[in-house]
Design brief:
CATH topology: Aspartate Aminotransferase, domain 1
Strand content: 15-25%
CATH class: Alpha Beta
Shape: globular
Distance between the termini: 32 Å
Number of strands: 7
Radius of gyration: 14 Å
Oligomer: single chain
Helix content: 25-40%
Order of helices and strands: EHHEEEEHEEH
Number of helices: 4
Strand order of the largest sheet: 1-6-7-5-4-3-2
Structural class: alpha+beta
């Protein structure tokens, strides 16, 4: 698992104009390609692995999926798209994430490489299970 340092971090891509996005579609529409294509694929992979009643929202200025609690955040950056599935999920899958740049709670997927759809689905299923176990106590 490659760690990033603060010098490698960039701000999340901002939608066109200065207004904050009102919804996920608006956020994605303002992202230039190839990040938009990658983010759309990431969104589809996430949606396919979470409960159908999960909803999309904007949280901290970036897209998020929530079901009882926020399951995941995702965002576009100049050279990668990030998935924020929580530190516990990243730790659980650290061996499978060795080829990706990570930080405590973030995974960077380069926009110039194929997105690992099956891995994203696995991460999301683990995150859903984590939330479910907390809410059933």
């Amino acid at each position: 698992m490659k760690k990033t340092n603060s010098a490698n971090r960039r701000s999340a891509a901002k939608p066109k104009g200065n207004a904050a996005p009102k919804n996920v579609d608006e956020y994605i529409a303002g992202i230039p390609d190839p990040a938009r294509r990658t983010l759309n694929k990431m969104r589809a992979a996430i949606r396919s692995a979470v409960p159908p009643e999960a909803t999309e929202t904007i949280s901290y200025g970036i897209p998020a999926i929530r079901n009882k609690a926020v399951l995941v955040w995702f965002a576009a950056f100049p050279n990668h798209c990030s998935l924020f599935p929580t530190a516990a999920v990243i730790e659980k899958f650290k061996n499978e994430l060795k080829s990706y740049s990570t930080s405590k709670g973030t995974i960077h997927f380069p926009t110039n490489k194929p997105l690992p759809i099956a891995l994203i689905k696995k991460l999301m299923k683990a995150r859903v299970a984590q939330i479910e176990s907390k809410t059933q106590r």
